[in-house]
Amino acid sequence: MLKILISLGIGFLIGYQKFLSDKMIAANSKLQMIWLLLLIFVMGMSIGMDPDILTQLPVLGGKAFIFAVATCIGSVGVVYVFSRIFFKEEKK
Question: What is the pLDDT of residues 4-14, one digit of tens each?
Answer without folding.
Answer: 999 999 999 98
